[in-house]
C-alpha cells in the first residue's frame, strides 16, 4: 500500500500542491524496476511539492522513510504534466532499507544530541537548552539557541546511510554565532559521535584576494595590473542625482563603478507582477498590515533599505561585528519620508562614509535579482526569498538578509541558504586594495622615500587612518632575545618608555630558542607585546638582511590587538635598523589605499544570490542539501560556483557585448580594470582560444577546488547563452520571456528543478535537455548537445564515480560526440551575427507544415523555404534524439516530402528542417 507523509521544516510542508496518486504509484513502480524492494519506495515523505503555472509541471520531491523515520540523503523526485502524467523521476533510495534499519529508539535525548553536535563541530558547550516547540522526534523538535546558535535549534530523529548500513541519528541544525557556518549535523543517536555534516553557507574556499594574486602572478604583474586599476573619484552626493522615491545605484546591467555611472532608479519603475508589495516597507503598494510584526516596527518613523524581498544593512565592526544586527534603525541608510536614497560615493567605496551608498546598491541589486529570477521561474512556490508570500504559495518569512561591509571577514563573500521559510543571508565583505601599503620615510633625508609593506591579517586596518599613521620608529629591546632584544619576545621591554607612543620596529623569528617562559614569537604575540608597551603601530622586519620577499602575517586576533602591523622585507628593514643603531632618528608615515567594497561589485552580488537559486531549486525548497560541494573528504562535481558565475555574467551583459568578449569575475573588487582577467583561472568567452575549458580538466591539478570546477560548468552555460541569443535575438528587458537571453535563463532554472539531487555535470546537461523538451518541444536539442559536446560533455562522456551519493571527480571521461542521428548545429559566430538582431536561423514553426497531425504511418512535410543546398529533414523525440533523417533537394520539400512513421513509438516529435538559410521546426503527434 502506498502511503504519503509530509515532511519539511518541523513537519511543515512548503508546497502549493501535492503529488498525485498516479505520480507516487509511478515513482514506486519505476523504483522497483530500478532495483528497489517493494516497500523501499512505498512510504516516502514529501519535502515539497508545487505546481508551476507557466510550464504546467508539478514538481514533487521525496525522501525515503523507514520505521516512521526519514532517511537522510535518500531522496527522489517525480514530475508530472498538466494532466497528471509523470514525465520524469529520479530516486536515490537505499535498497532493502527495512532490513538495514536498526530500532528507531535512541539512547541519547534530543537535548544531549545538541551537546554532542556542538562537541563534534568544536563549538562551545550549549547552556540553558529548553524546548520551544513540542513534536514527535520523527517530525522534529525545536529548542532555544542554547547560547551557541543564532537561531533556535531544530533536532530531528532520522536514519543515515553509512557504509552500506543505516545508523539511527539525530539531525541537529546550528547556525554559528560568527555566521561563518550554518551546520546540519548528524550525530549517532546512541554514542553521540558526529557522523556527517553539511553547511548551508556556501563560501569561498580561498579568498578572492588569494585567487587574484594567483591570477596576476608576480609582484611585477600586480604592479602592472593595479597601475591600470580605477583611481579614487567622487561621483555623487545626496541630492545631486536623486529625486524623491528613488535609489541612486549602479543599475542593471552595470557590473560596478568601473563599468558605468550611477543613476537614480525610481521606485515607480518596479514591476508589480514580481514585487506586488514594492521593494520598501513604506511603499504605498504594500497594504496596511503587510509587515505587522517586528520587521515593520523597527522601521516605524524610519525609511530604510528594507522591504519584502531583502533587508540590506551595515554589519561592520562598528555596529555588531559579524552578528547581523537587523534589529537596529542605525545600520541601514534612511531615505527619509521622501524615500530619497541618494548618498555620497567615492571610488573605491570601502569606507564607513561610503557605506550608505554601498548598502543602497546592495539593496537594489538583490531586489532586481529577485524580480528577474522570479520572472524566469524562481517564484514563491519554488522557494524564493520573501517576507510575505501570496496565500498558499510557499513559505514566507525568508527575505534575504544582505549584510554590507560585514565584520566577520575580508576579501570574500558568502550566501547561506536554509530551507524555504528561513532567511537567506548574503555576507559582503571589504576587499584589500591590491596596491600595497607603503611606509614613507620623511627623516633622515638619506632614507627618504616610500617603502612597500604588507599589512597583517589581524589588528586594526590602516584604512582606518585616511591621512596615514605617522610617528617615530623605535627598535624594541626585550632584554632576552638576540640582535639587541629586537625580536620582541618578552614584555615589558627594557626600553618600554621609549617605545610608548612610537612605532615599534621588531625582527621576525628569534624567540623559539629562548628557555621555557620566554614566550612564543609568532606574529600576533610580537604585535600584542608591542601594544602592551604603548606602541601605536608595529613594523616587523625579516630576519634575513638580504631578503627581498614579502611575508603575509597571518594569525587570528584572539588577544585584542588594536594597533596596525605591517611586514617589511629584509633589505628595507636592515636600512632602518642600521640608522637606528647609529642613533639617527627615523620618522615616517604608513598609508594604504582605500578598501574596495564588495557591495559595489554587482557580479559578486549576483554570484552569491545565485547560490540561493540553485540551492532552493535543486531537490526542492524543503531540502537545502542537494548541492553539496564536499562531504569533508571527497571533492565533488559541484556546479554551484558555476551557476553563480553564470548568473553574474548574465545579469551584467552590456550592450555591445558579444560571446567572444572576455569577461572576468570580480574585477572591481580585486582592483582590476574592466578588461582584467578576474579571479578565475581563465576569463569567460565563447572563443575557445580564450577559454578552452572542458570536462576532462576536472580533477586535474588546478581543477580540484569548487570554484575551478565550477568554471567549466559556467563556461558551457555561457556558450549556450550566446548561441540562444544569436538564434532568438537579445532582449534588454530582463523581465521579459522573449529573446535568447531570457529564454535560456528560464531553461537553466527549469533544469535545476528537474535535475537529480547532487547532480553531476552530465546530470545537469540532461536536465537542461529535458527542460527544453518539456518547455520548448525539444526545439533546441541540437544546439544544446552541440555546445555540451564542445566542452567535453558529449553523448559518450562518463560522469565519474558516485561516493556516498555524491558525484566525485574520479573516473570522469570527456567525450565530444553527438547522439547517434543528431548532427551538430553550426556554432554561430558573433562576427557574423551582431548582438540585438535576430539571426536568419531563428526558429519559426509557422513556415513548416506537417500533416496529417496526428500521423499514423506516413507523415508529409511541406515548406516554401529557400536553400542553396539540399535540405535535411529530421524527426526528434523529446529527449533530443534524432529518430529519422531524410536529405533531399529543396524542391522536394516545397512539393512535399513523405516520411514513414509506422515504426515510431507513439508520442510527440519535433520536425526539424535544416536549410542553408536557417533551421525551422514544427511539432507533430504520432499515434497508431
From TrEMBL:
Residues 851-925 form the Secretion system C-terminal sorting domain. The keyword Protease applies. Pfam families: FTP (PF07504), PA (PF02225), Peptidase_M36 (PF02128), Por_Secre_tail (PF18962). Keywords: Hydrolase, Metal-binding, Metalloprotease, Protease, Secreted, Signal, Zinc, Zymogen. Its cofactor is Zn(2+). InterPro entries: FTP_domain, Fungal_virulence_M36, PA_domain, Peptidase_M36, Peptidase_M4/M1_CTD_sf, Secre_tail. It is found in: Secreted. Residues 480-576 form the PA domain. Coiled coil: none annotated. Residues 46-90 form the FTP domain. Gene3D superfamilies: 3.10.170.10, 3.50.30.30, Neutral Protease Domain 2. Belongs to the peptidase M36 family. This is Peptidase M36.
Amino acid at each position: 500500500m502506498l502511503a504519503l507523509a509530509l515532511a519539511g521544516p518541523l513537519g511543515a510542508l512548503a508546497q502549493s500542491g501535492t503529488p498525485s496518486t498516479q505520480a507516487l504509484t509511478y515513482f514506486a513502480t519505476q523504483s522497483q524496476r530500478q532495483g528497489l524492494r517493494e516497500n523501499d519506495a512505498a512510504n516516502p515523505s514529501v519535502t515539497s511539492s508545487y505546481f508551476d503555472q507557466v510550464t504546467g509541471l508539478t514538481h514533487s520531491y521525496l525522501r525515503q522513510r523507514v520505521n516512521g523515520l526519514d532517511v537522510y540523503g535518500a531522496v527522489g523526485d517525480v514530475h508530472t504534466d498538466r494532466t497528471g502524467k509523470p514525465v520524469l523521476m529520479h530516486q536515490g533510495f537505499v535498497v532493502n532499507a527495512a532490513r538495514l534499519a536498526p530500532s528507531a529508539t535512541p539512547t541519547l535525548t534530543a537535548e544531549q544530541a545538541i551537546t554532542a553536535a556542538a562537541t563534534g563541530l568544536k563549538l562551545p558547550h550549549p547552556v540553558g537548552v529548553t524546548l520551544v516547540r513540542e513534536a514527535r522526534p520523527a517530525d522534529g523538535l525545536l529548542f532555544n539557541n542554547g547560547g551557541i546558535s543564532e537561531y533556535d535549534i531544530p533536532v530531528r530523529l532520522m536514519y543515515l546511510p553509512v557504509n552500506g548500513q543505516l545508523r539511527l541519528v539525530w539531525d541537529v541544525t546550528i547556525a554559528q554565532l560568527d555566521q561563518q557556518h550554518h551546520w546540519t549535523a548528524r550525530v549517532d543517536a546512541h554514542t553521540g559521535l558526529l557522523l556527517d555534516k553539511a553547511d548551508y553557507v556556501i563560501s569561498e574556499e580561498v579568498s578572492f584576494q588569494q585567487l587574484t594574486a594567483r591570477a596576476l602572478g608576480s609582484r611585477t604583474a600586480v604592479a602592472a595590473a593595479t597601475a591600470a586599476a580605477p583611481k579614487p573619484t567622487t561621483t555623487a552626493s545626496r541630492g545631486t542625482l536623486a529625486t524623491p522615491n528613488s535609489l541612486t545605484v549602479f543599475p542593471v546591467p552595470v557590473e560596478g563603478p568601473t563599468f558605468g555611472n550611477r543613476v537614480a532608479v525610481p521606485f515607480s519603475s518596479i514591476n508589480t507582477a514580481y514585487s506586488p508589495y514594492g521593494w520598501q516597507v513604506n511603499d504605498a503598494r504594500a497594504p496596511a498590515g503587510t509587515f505587522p510584526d517586528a520587521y515593520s516596527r523597527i522601521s516605524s518613523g524610519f525609511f530604510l533599505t528594507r522591504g519584502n524581498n531583502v533587508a540590506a544593512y551595515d554589519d561592520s565592526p562598528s555596529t555588531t561585528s559579524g552578528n547581523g544586527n537587523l534589529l537596529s534603525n542605525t545600520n541601514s541608510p534612511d531615505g527619509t519620508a521622501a524615500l530619497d536614497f541618494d548618498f555620497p560615493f567615492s571610488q573605491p567605496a570601502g569606507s564607513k562614509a561610503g557605506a550608505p551608498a554601498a548598502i543602497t546598491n546592495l539593496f537594489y541589486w538583490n531586489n532586481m535579482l529577485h524580480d528577474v529570477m522570479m520572472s524566469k521561474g524562481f517564484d514563491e512556490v519554488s522557494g524564493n526569498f520573501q517576507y510575505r508570500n501570496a496565500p498558499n504559495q510557499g513559505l514566507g518569512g525568508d527575505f534575504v538578509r544582505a549584510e554590507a561591509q560585514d565584520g566577520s571577514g575580508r576579501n570574500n563573500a558568502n550566501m547561506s541558504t536554509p530551507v524555504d521559510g528561513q532567511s537567506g543571508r548574503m555576507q559582503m565583505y571589504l576587499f584589500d586594495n591590491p596596491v600595497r601599503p607603503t611606509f614613507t620615510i620623511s627623516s633622515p633625508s638619506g632614507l627618504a622615500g616610500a617603502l612597500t609593506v604588507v599589512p597583517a591579517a589581524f589588528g586594526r586596518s590602516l584604512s582606518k587612518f585616511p591621512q596615514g599613521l605617522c610617528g617615530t620608529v623605535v627598535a624594541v629591546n626585550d632584554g632576552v632575545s638576540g640582535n639587541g632584544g629586537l625580536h620582541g619576545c618578552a614584555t615589558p621591554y627594557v626600553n618600554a618608555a621609549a617605545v610608548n607612543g612610537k612605532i615599534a620596529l621588531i625582527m621576525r623569528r628569534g624567540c623559539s630558542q629562548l628557555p621555557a617562559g620566554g614566550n612564543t614569537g609568532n606574529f600576533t604575540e610580537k604585535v600584542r607585546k608591542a601594544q602592551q608597551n604603548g606602541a601605536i603601530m608595529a613594523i616587523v622586519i625579516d630576519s634575513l638582511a638580504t631578503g627581498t620577499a614579502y611575508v603575509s602575517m597571518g594569525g587570528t586576533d584572539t588577544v585584542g590587538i588594536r594597533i596596525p602591523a605591517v611586514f617589511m622585507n629584509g633589505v628595507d628593514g636592515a636600512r632602518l635598523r642600521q640608522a637606528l643603531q647609529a642613533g639617527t632618528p627615523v620618522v615616517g608615515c604608513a598609508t594604504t589605499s582605500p578598501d574596495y567594497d564588495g557591495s559595489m561589485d554587482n557580479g559578486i552580488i549576483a554570484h552569491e544570490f545565485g547560490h540561493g537559486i540553485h540551492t532552493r531549486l535543486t531537490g526542492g525548497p524543503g531540502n537545502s542539501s542537494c548541492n553539496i560541494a564536499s562531504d569533508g573528504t571527497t571533492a565533488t562535481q559541484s556546479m554551484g560556483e558555476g551557476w553563480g558565475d553564470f548568473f553574474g555574467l548574465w545579469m551584467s551583459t552590456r550592450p555591445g557585448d558579444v560571446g567572444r568578449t572576455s569577461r572576468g569575475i570580480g574585477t572591481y573588487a580585486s582592483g582590476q580594470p574592466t578588461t582584467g582577467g578576474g579571479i578565475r583561472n581563465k576569463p569567460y568567452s565563447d572563443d575557445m582560444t580564450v577559454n578552452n575549458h572542458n570536462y576532462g580538466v576536472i580533477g586535474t591539478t588546478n581543477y580540484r577546488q569548487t570554484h575551478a570546477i565550477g568554471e567549466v560548468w559556467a563556461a558551457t552555460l555561457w556558450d549556450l547563452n550566446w548561441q540562444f541569443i544569436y538564434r532568438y535575438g537579445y532582449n534588454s528587458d530582463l523581465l521579459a520571456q522573449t529573446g535568447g537571453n531570457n529564454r535560456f535563463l528560464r531553461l537553466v532554472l527549469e533544469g535545476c528543478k528537474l535535475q537529480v539531487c547532487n547532480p553531476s555535470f552530465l546530470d545537469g546537461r540532461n536536465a537542461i535537455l529535458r527542460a527544453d523538451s518539456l518547455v520548448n518541444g525539444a526545439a533546441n536539442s541540437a544546439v544544446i548537445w552541440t555546445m555540451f559536446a564542445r566542452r567535453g560533455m558529449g553523448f559518450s562522456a562518463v560522469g565519474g564515480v558516485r561516493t556516498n551519493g555524491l558525484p566525485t571527480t574520479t573516473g570522469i571521461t570527456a567525450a565530444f560526440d553527438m547522439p547517434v542521428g543528431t548532427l551538430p548545429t553550426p556554432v554561430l559566430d558573433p562576427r557574423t551575427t551582431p548582438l540585438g538582431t535576430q539571426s536568419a536561423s531563428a526558429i519559426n514553426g509557422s513556415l513548416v507544415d506537417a500533416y496529417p497531425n496526428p500521423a499514423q504511418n506516413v507523415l508529409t512535410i511541406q515548406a516554401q523555404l529557400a536553400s542553396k543546398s539540399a535540405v535535411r529533414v529530421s524527426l526528434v523525440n523529446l529527449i533530443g534524439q534524432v529518430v529519422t533523417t531524410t536529405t533531399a533537394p529543396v524542391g522536394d520539400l516545397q512539393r512535399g516530402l513523405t516520411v514513414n512513421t509506422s515504426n515510431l513509438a507513439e508520442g510527440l516529435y519535433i520536425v526539424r528542417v535544416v536549410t542553408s538559410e536557417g533551421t525551422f521546426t514544427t511539432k507533430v503527434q504520432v499515434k497508431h
